[in-house]
């Protein structure tokens, strides 16, 4: 927890703004893909015990679809794009015209969702890279349909070596009539936070 | 009947008719120990293989295989179990995202499994059942009445070991 105890309101505001800018660009990209209006909630910056991370997406046992990226470069971390199964089905149908339940998906459908995840996360990260002037390189996407707890715990491994709490920047978005609901999670490695703040000229601790 | 929830990096002991349960094991490993004679069950949700990986000063005992398992045995002994009666079952240690298998951090599932086996071997505890690896999440529940471990996955349903 040592990393986070020093944060004041200002640091949280900065992290929220990072979520806002990143997810804002991703939502715009999604809106273009679907040709529909996409709304976004105010990003939540949370410092939460590991156990509670999955609560934001319905609990540890909720089955979700996740596209995962490892972000390398100046500011390493993990990034998840998470959808509930109904949303995933609807999104695929809107974009590709294929109407199939997630469990019936084959290579083509999975590949399409990889690509959608790639486009959205790419928009999120490239806007963040522009804004911070940091070099951020996402890995190729990896997709899983499984329990949220099992999936998200993967993104907490690096943090697990540093403490029992995770800092997550969580932005929920939804299509106008809430047929597509999802979350972007950015979980910076603990070492990345000072780098992130420094790039923006923000002090790492105390109120500003 | 009470179900005792074990969180990530947590551990606990139960007596009949209670059950121990941990949800959403991905690369983490659920270690359950059982003393059939005294009907005492223990469960740990191990997240990382070795406590030497810890970067910060404070150490969460339940997080690492090499600290969680000896501590769990200790707690069970205090509850009345005898080490020579204890047997183990382990589940979890999946690789949720297969392609990332090259990096050492991302191979954490198999490393966790190896570390748990080593820690059990060091404590002279026999593993009687194992459901590890693969690429799926697991939820496990151990009944302290009979030591049966129920393993639930999204795609393969429920099985008991």
TrEMBL record, chain A:
Q: Which Gene3D superfamilies match?
A: CheC-like
Do the record's keywords include Metal-binding? no
Asked whether the keyword Transcription is assigned, the reply is: no
Named from the GO MF annotations, one term is: hydrolase activity
| Highest taxon of the lineage | Bacteria
In this chain the CheC-like protein domain maps to 13-47, 109-143
GO biological process: one example: chemotaxis
Q: Which gene encodes it?
A: cheC
Q: Which organism is it from?
A: Brevibacillus parabrevis
Stored Pfam families: CheC
Q: What is this protein called?
A: CheY-P phosphatase CheC
Enumerate the InterPro entries for this protein.
CheC (IPR007597), CheC-like_sf (IPR028976), CheZ_family_phosphatases (IPR050992)
Print the keywords alphabetically.
Chemotaxis, Hydrolase
From TrEMBL, chain B:
What is any one GO biological process for this UniProt entry?
chemotaxis
Q: Give the GO molecular function terms.
A: protein-glutamine glutaminase activity
Question: What top-level class of enzyme does the UniProt entry assign?
Answer: hydrolase
**A Pfam family hit:** CheD
- Which superkingdom, per the lineage? Bacteria
Q: Which InterPro entries match?
A: CheD-like_sf, Chemorcpt_Glu_NH3ase_CheD, Cytotoxic_necrot_fac-like_cat
Does Hydrolase count among this protein's keywords? yes
Q: Which Enzyme Commission number(s) are listed? A: 3.5.1.44
Catalytic activity from the UniProt record:
L-glutaminyl-[protein] + H2O = L-glutamyl-[protein] + NH4(+)
Assigned protein family: Belongs to the CheD family.
Q: What name appears for this protein in its UniProt entry? A: Probable chemoreceptor glutamine deamidase CheD
Cite the source lineage. Bacteria, Bacillati, Bacillota, Bacilli, Bacillales
């Amino acid at each position: 927890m040592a990393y986070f105890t020093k944060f004041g309101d200002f640091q949280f505001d900065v992290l929220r703004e990072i979520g806002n800018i990143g997810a804002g660009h991703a939502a715009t990209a999604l809106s273009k893909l679907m040709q529909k209006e996409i709304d976004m909630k105010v990003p939540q910056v949370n410092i939460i015990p590991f156990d509670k991370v999955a609560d934001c997406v319905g609990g540890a046992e909720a089955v979700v679809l996740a596209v995962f990226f490892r972000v390398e470069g100046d500011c390493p971390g993990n990034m998840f794009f998470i959808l509930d199964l109904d949303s995933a089905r609807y999104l695929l149908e809107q974009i590709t015209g294929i109407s199939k339940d997630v469990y019936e998906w084959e290579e083509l459908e999975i590949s399409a969702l990889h690509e959608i995840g790639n486009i959205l996360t790419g928009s999120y990260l490239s806007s963040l890279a522009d804004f911070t002037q940091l070099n951020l390189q996402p890995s190729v996407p990896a997709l899983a349909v499984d329990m949220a707890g099992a999936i998200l715990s993967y993104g907490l491994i690096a943090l697990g070596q540093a403490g029992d709490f995770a800092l997550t920047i969580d932005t929920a978005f939804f299509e106008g009539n809430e047929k597509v609901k999802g979350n972007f999670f950015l979980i910076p490695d603990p070492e990345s936070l000072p780098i992130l703040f420094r790039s923006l000229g923000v002090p790492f601790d105390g109120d500003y | 009947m009470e179900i005792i929830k074990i969180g990530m990096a947590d551990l606990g002991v139960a007596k009949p008719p209670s059950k121990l349960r941990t949800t959403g094991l991905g690369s983490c490993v659920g270690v359950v120990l059982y003393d059939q004679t005294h009907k005492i069950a223990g469960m740990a949700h191990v997240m990382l293989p070795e406590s030497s990986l810890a970067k910060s000063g404070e150490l969460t005992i339940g997080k690492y295989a090499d600290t969680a398992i000896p501590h769990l045995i200790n707690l069970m002994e205090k509850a009345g179990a005898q080490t020579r009666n204890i047997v183990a079952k382990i589940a979890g240690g999946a690789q949720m995202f297969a392609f990332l298998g090259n990096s050492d951090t991302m191979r954490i599932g198999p490393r966790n499994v190896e570390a748990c086996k080593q820690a059990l071997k060091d404590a002279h505890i026999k593993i009687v059942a194992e459901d590890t690896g693969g690429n799926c999440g697991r939820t496990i529940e151990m009944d302290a009445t009979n030591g049966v471990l129920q393993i639930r996955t999204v795609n393969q349903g429920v099985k008991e070991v």
